[in-house]
């Protein structure tokens, strides 16, 4: 499975950041969504950016955020990409990509085949579709450890590069990649010892599982 990109999302402190870099993850995710237990402030993002420098790419996660909020986060975290996890339309995604000149990832909440097909709507507007499990109404849009039927992706040949999120962890990520053919895996709660608390051991185990299956 060489070549599968790894993103560790919900990084909040130096220990988690160091663990992600030691595991040679390709990306860390910084959550700019206040209701999330993994949220960071612009000040905290700036500190993490200072610590990591050019050693790893930082992706900012947003949920229906305004331009000013995103601009502040981009500057503070020196972000390399924007991940949209709300109800952002293709038009909104394209606007943000144009304004900030950064790659845009769009999370697609999946519970059935029709949701997979929604990724086609974002062709030309975003750079990557991230298939994630649909969460219950009224809950957070991600980071809850839920997964979907990975077989929905076995024959997917969409117009966009794509990644897999939702319910993956060190124990099942190898199977997830083998079943779906994902070229990027995005993990958050699956490498935690408690809500919002990253486990360096689980981060290392996750990376080993991706690379060594």
TrEMBL record:
Keyword Coiled coil: no
Superkingdom of this protein's organism: Bacteria
Segments forming domain N-(5'phosphoribosyl) anthranilate isomerase (PRAI): 6-207
Pathway(s) the chain acts in: Amino-acid biosynthesis; L-tryptophan biosynthesis; L-tryptophan from chorismate: step 3/5
Pfam family, one: PRAI
InterPro entries: Aldolase_TIM (IPR013785), PRAI_dom (IPR001240), RibuloseP-bd_barrel (IPR011060), TrpF_fam (IPR044643)
EC id: 5.3.1.24
Keywords: Amino-acid biosynthesis, Aromatic amino acid biosynthesis, Isomerase, Tryptophan biosynthesis
Catalytic activity: N-(5-phospho-beta-D-ribosyl)anthranilate = 1-(2-carboxyphenylamino)-1-deoxy-D-ribulose 5-phosphate
GO biological process, one term: L-tryptophan biosynthetic process
Gene Ontology molecular function, alphabetical: phosphoribosylanthranilate isomerase activity
Family: Belongs to the TrpF family.
This protein's name: N-(5'-phosphoribosyl)anthranilate isomerase
Organism: Croceicoccus mobilis
Lineage, broadest ranks: Bacteria, Pseudomonadati, Pseudomonadota, Alphaproteobacteria, Sphingomonadales
Name of the coding gene: trpF
């Amino acid at each position: 499975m060489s070549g599968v990109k790894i993103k560790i999302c919900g990084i909040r402190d130096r220990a988690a950041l160091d663990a992600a870099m030691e595991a040679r993850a390709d990306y860390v995710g910084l959550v700019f969504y206040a209701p999330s237990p993994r949220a960071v402030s612009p000040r905290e993002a700036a500190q993490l950016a200072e610590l990591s420098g050019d050693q790893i790419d930082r992706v900012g996660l947003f949920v229906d955020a305004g331009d000013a909020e995103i601009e502040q986060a981009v500057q503070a975290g020196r972000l390399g990409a924007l991940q949209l996890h709300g109800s952002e339309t293709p038009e909104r995604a394209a606007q943000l990509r144009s304004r900030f000149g950064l790659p845009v990832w769009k999370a697609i909440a999946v519970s059935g085949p029709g949701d997979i097909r929604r990724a086609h709507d974002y062709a030309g507007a975003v750079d990557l579709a991230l298939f994630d499990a649909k969460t219950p109404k009224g809950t957070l849009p991600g980071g809850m450890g839920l997964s979907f039927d990975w077989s929905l992706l076995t024959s997917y040949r969409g117009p966009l590069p794509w990644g897999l999120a939702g319910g993956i962890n060190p124990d099942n990520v190898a199977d997830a990649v083998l079943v779906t053919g994902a070229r990027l895996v995005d993990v958050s709660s699956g490498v935690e010892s408690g809500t919002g608390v990253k486990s360096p051991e689980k981060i290392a185990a996750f990376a080993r599982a991706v690379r060594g299956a």
